[in-house]
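Thread: Major facilitator superfamily (MFS) profile domain-containing protein, structure

OP (GT): Posting the sequence first so everyone is looking at the same thing. Length is 414 residues per the record. Can we get the structure tokens written out before standup tomorrow? I want them in the notebook alongside the other entries.
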Amino acid sequence: MERGNVLSQLLRFTPLVWVMLLGNFFVRATYYMVWPFLSVLLYQKYNLSATEVGLLLSISAVFSVLLGFYTGNLADRYGRFKLLYASVLVGIFSFIALAFVESLWAFCMAVFFATMPRALWDAPSKALLSDELKEDGDRELALHMLYFLVNVGAAIGPLYGLWAGLNGEQFSFIYTAVSYIGLLVALLVMHRGHSVYNAGVATTLPNFSSWLGILKKDTVFLLVLAANLLIYFVFAQGDSSLIQYLARAEVPELATLVSMLIVVNSSVIVLCQFPLLHLMRHWSIQKRLYCGGGILALSQVMMALNPVDYFSGWIVCVLVWSLSEAVMFSNINVHIDRLAPEHLKSSYFGAAGLCSLGFALAPLLGGIVLDIASGPVLFIVTTAISVVALMIYRVAERTPRDETLLGVSNLRSG
């Protein structure tokens, strides 16, 4: 991707596109300023056990994923902006509640609602980016930038939170609420100059049950979802089971090693994503996914073979793993965008959110393997899963797609 071409693409980004991109960055950064300290607060103030905290967060996460699947279809039928407004309003009120409520049940309800804004925001915001940008190359760049900015926000948010002294103080959740208020103002300003969605169009689009019928018959898309879910499951082992494995083995200087692994992961993604995009600019999406999946499988083999107390070896393993993440994640979004018909963008992005169940199930299933076997066995299993995911991508690429199931309408939500 040439520098002049990138500049011309950025100049074609509308103000609404920049609101979607920068809004995601600020919301994610302020979210991670305080969210990592939630477990600390639940333990110190409410005396919840590790199991109780994990159960609360897991149930909230699974509900959020299922909600995103349903609301994606609502955004196609009734308009992107309505779901975006719902997202920011829920975010404002839930994080204000987290900052001020005192009783345990109210705090738990606030936690539950605080996981909803991301589910409500994700599909319609990606679909709106696609609506605003007519060229495939512009859409691809915007989705790559979205993933990049989300990662930057996730990386600097906790660091800024520590620097600012937000180490588990309940009132600090107000900062995330303020970021949502700012995003609400930006949406109101942008929406004023945007074409108003014609509610009558909603009747020409499939309702949720009809959308499920379309989805069930779209074999290619379902194959891609299955592969993506497996890929997410493997990636999630690096965030959960790897740390458990190292902790159980009583690795020397564990805290230093874990910190180094987090820094390496974030740094590789931030520094390498766009150089890799430039390197692969002439590759098909499928070829990029094969490359990223192959690197992922290699990283799992390396983890299986690395001695548990070999400090530098784990850093190299995570470096390779992070290169795969830099290739895979943003291209997965681009792949979904290209598979989705114009009038069902939110529905398809919402369905793609189901792949996050791979993240939700990873700690449980990975922990079971660690309990009954060992770390090397776990990484042998994830190597096999990575290879299976690559095979499913290949089957999806070779499977003919019945385009008549998707319709040819160019209707757009506003």
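GT: Both are above now. Quick notes for whoever picks this up: The chain has two domains: 13-204, 206-407. The CA atoms of residues 85 and 188 lie 9 Å apart.
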